[in-house]
TrEMBL record:
The active site is at E242, C276. It comes from the Bacteria. NAD(+) binds at G219, S220, S221, R222, T223, G224. Keywords: Arginine metabolism, NAD, Oxidoreductase. It comes from Solimonas aquatica. GO terms for molecular function: succinylglutamate-semialdehyde dehydrogenase activity. GO terms for biological process: L-arginine catabolic process to L-glutamate; L-arginine catabolic process to succinate. Residues 12-456 form the Aldehyde dehydrogenase domain. Pathway: Amino-acid degradation; L-arginine degradation via AST pathway; L-glutamate and succinate from L-arginine: step 4/5. Its EC number is 1.2.1.71. Pfam families: Aldedh (PF00171). This is N-succinylglutamate 5-semialdehyde dehydrogenase. InterPro entries: Ald_DH/histidinol_DH, Ald_DH_C, Ald_DH_CS_CYS, Ald_DH_CS_GLU, Ald_DH_N, Aldehyde_DH_dom, Aldehyde_DH_Superfamily, SuccinylGlu_semiald_DH_AstD. Catalyzes the NAD-dependent reduction of succinylglutamate semialdehyde into succinylglutamate.
Length: 484
């Protein structure tokens, strides 16, 4: 089913770089194998993209939109197979993988609307605003949403008239291949979308290629910061970074306890905590109300069903992306415990396999813990005395992606909203499950002020402002000191 190949200039072909494999994290089944792209493969893809891009940018927007819609139709027809592949390669439950495919399909019409609103052409008398594509852009994807998140860069980039070099996560090559096959079968002209499989060496070769006009990155803050340093001083190319978070959730005493519990679980443990938007820090009030809420939360967390993606009944959470990722999470938890954290419900390895972890809740109140994103099902509890203290704790992070506020006093929420420094701020709603009809991005170590989703059109195009007349005309009066 999978070719294990790269896709360059409309052709599937063997890579010339290091061997690469991907496995189902639930049972270790081999899902994909092939070779990475080496520097020569990378440069050939850029040359093909450069040639294809100019004709693509010349097309009327309606022509590009028609191709995008053909791709959406292909996704729709293959949706169940694609969801199953996502579920198997990432380990996420099938119900969740189906949601990812739905988001991918939804991205097409959203991007067409966003391009018209944020980019497109406007004229007011002699003043004309147009938008132009950058040229050849690269998209680096993370593993947690191997379809939806790269798709969220690729679709608006192609729509704007760019050509794309796509380097998926080395942990999800099979999903990337299936996605690119859909574009091919939808009739995308050769060279416009090139698939370069590989690890960080392939990514580094893409980022260093002289033909690169822009890089749209979704991944960890560590890699994003590295790319930012590499691009420092280079104003020729655009870099859009969507990175991690250490997202806080402030809970105030409230009436709708069951709903709040449901939303805290979705915030912290959806996708086994492998979403950048997941809540990592839960701030609860000291005292009886906070303690009662905590006991209900611990009980509900302990009953979350963890299992393989196709299990029936369906689990709430699957395994982590790999046994190695699970091991790193357990080590992070051990470090927090060594610093003095209290294990209220420690995350544990489960008998289903080495990548399976139970959801964990540990208390770190009063402890100076590192400001790190732990990308898995581990929630850290911090108790506070009053709202302003909670806000200070919530803001004490170098990240600024998402935050949530649970409470029924709107004035309190507004008070927090004026002080929160994040790109996504929700009130009585989970931090996860962002809307594609809004911008999505963060401040600080979470992004570089190029939010994605609805605002992706902004980094896929650049504006050209013109004052135009069919013929030059003289002003009523010449400027002082000028004669003609
Ligand atoms: N803000 C957002 O929209 C989102 C952010 N994320 C973040 O992504 C992370 C999880 O994804 P991962 O795949 O582990 O991220 P990662 O940073 O390890 O990898 C992301 C991509 O960068 C490539 N890469 C890694 N090192 C590189 C290097 N030195 N040079 C060039 N390319 C390199 C990888 O091969 C991959 O394609 C989490 O931190 C999460 O918070 C995930 C989803 C959404
Ligand atoms: O890109 C969009 O359409 C909106 C952003 C989005 O879907 N975010 C998701 C996943 C991002 C992640 O955490 O990996 C979310 O907020 O749950």
């Amino acid at each position: 089913m999978h070719t294990g190949q790269l896709f360059i200039d409309g052709q599937w072909r063997e890579g010339r770089g290091a061997p690469l494999q991907s496995f189902n994290p639930a049972d270790g089944t081999l899902l994909w194998q092939g070779r990475s792209a080496d520097v020569r493969d990378v440069h050939e893809a850029f040359l093909a993209a450069r040639v294809a891009q100019s004709a693509w940018a010349e097309r009327e927007p309606a022509g590009r939109e028609a191709l995008l819609r053909a791709y959406a139709e292909c996704l729709r027809q293959r949706s169940e197979a694609l969801a199953l592949l996502i579920a198997r390669e990432v380990g996420k439950p099938l119900w969740e993988a189906r949601g990812e495919v739905t988001s991918m399909i939804g991205k097409i019409e959203l991007s067409i609307r966003a391009q018209a609103e944020r980019a497109g052409t406007r004229q007011d008398g002699a003043q004309v605003l147009r938008h132009r594509p950058h040229g050849v852009v690269a998209v680096f994807g993370p593993y947690n949403f191997p379809g939806h998140l790269p798709n969220g860069h690729i679709v608006p980039a192609l729509l704007a008239g760019n050509a794309v070099i796509f380097k998926p996560s080395e942990q999800t090559p099979a999903v990337a291949e299936a996605m690119v096959a859909c574009w091919q079968d939808a009739g995308l002209p050769p060279g416009l979308l090139n698939l370069l499989q590989g690890e960080r060496d392939t990514g580094a070769a893409i980022a260093a290629d002289g033909e690169l006009d822009g890089l749209f990155f979704t991944g960890s803050s560590r890699t994003g910061a590295l790319l930012h340093r590499q691009f420092a001083g280079d104003t020729r190319r655009i870099l859009a970074l969507e990175m991690g978070g250490n997202n806080p959730l402030i809970v105030r005493p409230l009436q709708a306890v069951d709903a709040a519990l449901h939303d805290v679980l979705l915030s912290a443990f959806l996708s086994s905590g492998q979403r950048c938007s997941c809540a990592r820090r839960l701030l609860l009030p000291e005292g009886d109300w906070g303690e009662a809420f905590l006991q209900r939360l611990l009980a509900a967390t302990a009953t979350l069903r963890v299992g393989a993606c196709e299990d029936q009944p369906q689990p709430f959470m699957g395994p982590l992306i790999s046994p190695r990722a699970a091991q790193q999470l357990l080590e992070a938890q051990d470090q927090l415990l060594a610093l003095g954290a209290r294990a209220l419900l420690p995350m544990q390895r489960l008998p289903q396999g080495a990548a399976f972890l139970s959801p964990g809740l540990i208390e770190v109140s009063g402890i100076d813990v590192p400001d790190e994103e732990h990308f898995g099902p581990l929630l850290q509890l911090i108790r506070y005395r009053e709202l302003d203290q909670a806000i200070a704790i919530a803001n004490a992070t170098r990240y600024g992606l998402a935050a949530g506020f649970f409470g029924e006093d709107e004035a309190e929420y507004r008070h927090y909203a004026r002080r929160a420094r994040v790109g996504v701020l929700n009130w009585n709603r989970p931090t996860t499950g962002a809307s594609g009809a809004l911008p999505f991005g963060g401040t600080g170590a979470s992004g570089n002020h190029h939010p994605s989703a609805w605002y992706a059109a902004d980094y896929c195009n650049y504006p050209v402002a013109s004052q135009e007349a069919p013929q030059a005309s003289l002003p009523a009066q010449l400027p002082p000191g000028m004669q003609l």
